Amino acid sequence: MNQKDKVIVVGGGPVGALAALYTARRGYQVEVYEFRDDPNKPAASEAKLALIPVTLSERGFEAIKSAKVPGLSEDISRHSLPVHSRMVHTKDKHGDLKETSIPYSSNGDCIHIMQRTSIGQRLLLALAKEPNAKVFFDHKLVACDLPSKIATFENVKWQGRDGEVVEAENTKVTETHSKDVGRRKSVSFDYIIGADGAHSAIRKHLMRETNVDYNQKYVDVLWCDFYLPTDNKGNRKLDATHLHVWPDKERVFIVLPENDGSARGGMVAPVEEFRRLTEHPEELEDFFHASYPGVIPNLLSPESAKEQFFRRDHLSLMSIKCGKIGYGDSCVLLGDSSHTMPPFYGMGMNTGLEDVRVLFEQFIDPAHREDVYASIDTFCPKGVTKSYTHYRIPDVQAMTDIACNHFEELKEGVPGPTTVARKKVESKLQKHAPSLDYVPMYSRIVFGHERFSVALRKDATQKMIFTGVLAALCALCLAVLVQAGAGLV
């Protein structure tokens, strides 16, 4: 009897863990190698890392549900926070604080807020129950021979909470490796999935084996994470049914409420502004008052804002597009390793989770059903990787462009009258005439499942129609006014 293929997943974040779950539940051997420590260990969960909050959309939930793990999506939903609207914080013409609520959908749809690590923890716990799955933390990919299908990992060291060097745990590893040289382990595989993030090691090895059009572009801003605690009585300081935004020209402050009553904020500002504030810390409080009115002192004390600004990492935001995300019938890139986007649309992780569902449900599974000559023991039948990459690349690149462009809307805060009018028309038609398929862009992306490239084309068509109708109405009004004026002469 033939043995089923062995699959390696590099990267144990939400996308890698979900890909491993899909693989294991189809009966294949799967091993996950994660560079970081186990997120379910207390020391790992307490780490003071710079965090970009994530939202889980309908696409992400559908991908998790499709793993068919009983109770998993319900558990994640139960521990998330549903948010139905965006709250824009500005000042009115008198200088008083002003709040404007903008619903995400006319149908009552919502996004779910949850820490990325919490989603990853639950996916890994589900994976741990699969008898044909193994997870190895603290393992860094140092080499990958794609033609020979051999990956080499190094057991790494991490700094403990008190600064001491801690030897990474190394359990069960020797059971599954053909070669063991010191701290390095060589692993053979039949298929390898790269889900190791924006700075993907697998992607670098793939690019050595084949020509890949690669585009990396930095947004000229930095992100700084802020923790916003509850008040002294443990009460929330912000409405938990909204995602909160403080827009200001070239900068924005975004706050996502947490389940425990606290909130997580992100300051986004030009690189030069971060440098100036770093050199002149005495200007930070005035900067907050001018750019993000009300954050200090309503949400943060001046002392806490300054302490966090200098303690936390200042993260670069970038986009990455790859012209090729697969190698033969033995390797594919998923998630941020194949497409990286800034967090402004909240779709980076959701797009990665959808990558997994699309790969398995639309390509791997149908190939096994339709090709009578394909062995069920073979994880990825011939030609599937190439078909998936040709199909998926236009969509993830479209989503990357959408995310980059959305920063302009966030900085604008409350849209102008033309944009507001168009969105109202789209929402009304979506609700009362769904057969017209005239749907707001945000609903197509966040609450729908159609291809991103198709959604982008449809939105462009809707904009053209609205602009044409608006121009015709303006011309009609002008003609009526001219006619009325002529009648008075």
- Radius of gyration, whole Å: 25 Å
| Beta-strand residue fraction | 25-35%
How is the largest sheet built, in terms of strand order? 6-5-17-18-19-16-21-24
Percent helix range: 25-40%
Question: What are the segments in which pLDDT stays under 50 over at least 5 consecutive residues?
Answer: 44-48, 159-181
Structural class: alpha+beta
Number of strands: 24
- How many separate helices? 15
Q: What spatial form do the alpha-carbon principal axes imply? A: globular
| Biggest pleated-sheet summary | 8 strands, mixed
Report how far apart the termini are. Answer: 98 Å
Mean pLDDT: 86
Provide the fold topology.
Elements lengths: L5 E5 L3 H11 L4 E5 L8 H4 L8 E3 L1 H8 L6 H7 L2 E3 L1 E7 L5 E7 L7 E4 L1 H13 L4 E4 L2 E7 L4 E6 L1 E3 L5 E3 L11 E3 L2 E5 L2 E4 L6 H9 L4 E15 L13 E7 L2 E7 L5 E8 H9 L4 H8 L1 E2 H4 L3 H10 L2 E9 L3 E2 L3 E3 L5 E2 L7 H23 L13 H29 L4 H16 L8 H7 L4 H37 L1
Parallel strand pairs: 1-2, 1-15, 2-8, 5-17, 15-23
Antiparallel strand pairs: 3-7, 4-7, 5-6, 9-10, 10-14, 11-12, 13-14, 16-19, 16-21, 17-18, 18-19, 21-24, 22-23
What does this structure look like?
It is a single chain. It contains 15 helices and 24 strands. It is of the alpha+beta class and 489 residues long. β1 (6-10), α1 and β2 form a beta-alpha-beta unit. α1 (14-24) runs parallel beside α11, α3 (58-65) crosses α11 (348-370) and α12 (384-412) crosses α15. It is globular, with a radius of gyration of 25 Å. The protein starts with 5 loop residues before the first strand and ends with a helix.
